[in-house]
Write a structure and sequence with these properties.
mainly alpha; 240 residues
């Protein structure tokens, strides 16, 4: 028998599994809205509406539910827009951070040109050798400290215009964080409101189904078609 010459993968060398991306649209919510919409359509049909009205499912009850379904679909669209805005804001913050970091590195390079061979202690005020963007507070603190230092020092190639630009880049970085926070808050709030709306819609949809189940019981085989229309089991009770 020929030997199996297929090499055994080394530990940790197996292909990484693709991470599942979070979908912009919540499929469970979409399905819940679609199902409620379908139940409302059947509930308003002339063949069934009078019987349901006798069980306190009025036309107004159903049409109000339909209006809320439309509003929820609109909220779903807003949730997607809010998520997109958050992603855009995150990208804007990353760009602002990188631009600010590069500008600060130019200042550090100029500081080394002036002080590396004469007075290295001055380099500490320019945070040379320090990871200036280790985190947001670090970058905000270091950038302000370097700007303050430049107020009483001159470096080769670092003009007043460049210092003014540096101040603007630092403010842009701070503003980008605020924009991201606002977008995050808006996305979270919209999704929370949508979740509550879907819960309310589902509860009222179930109320219609329970009324239909009582009006057209499973014990009568002739009700099978009607029960199917209302998404009820044909030959057993509808339980929630």
């Amino acid at each position: 028998m020929a030997e199996n010459t297929t090499p055994t993968p080394a530990p940790g060398s197996e292909p990484a599994k693709n991470k599942r991306k979070r979908e912009l649209l919540n499929q469970a919510q979409i399905q819940a809205l679609t199902k409620a919409d379908q139940i409302c359509t059947w509930a308003l049909k002339a063949a069934y509406a009078p019987a349901l009205a006798n069980r306190e499912i009025s036309a107004a009850f159903v049409t109000d539910l339909q209006d809320d379904i439309i509003a929820a679909r609109q909220s779903s669209a807003l949730a997607v827009q809010s998520t997109t805005s958050k992603q855009t804001a995150t990208g804007g913050e990353t760009t602002a951070q990188e631009t600010l970091r590069k500008a600060l590195q130019e200042v550090q390079t100029a500081a080394k040109q002036k002080y590396a061979l004469t007075d290295r202690t001055q380099l500490r005020d320019y945070y040379v050798g320090t990871r200036i963007d280790a985190n947001r507070p670090q970058l905000e603190q270091v950038s302000q400290a370097i700007i303050s230092k430049l107020g009483g020092d001159t470096l080769p190639g670092i003009t007043a215009a460049k210092i003014t630009n540096l101040v603007g880049l630092r403010q842009a970085y701070i503003d980008a964080d605020t924009s991201q926070g606002d977008a995050q808050s808006s996305a979270s709030q919209t999704r929370t409101q949508l979740g509550l709306a879907v819960q309310s819609i589902t509860k009222r949809r179930l109320t219609i189904q329970l009324a239909a189940g009582a009006e057209w019981p499973h014990t009568d085989p002739a009700n099978a078609t009607i029960r199917k229309a209302f998404a009820l089991p044909a030959n057993k009770p509808f339980n929630v």
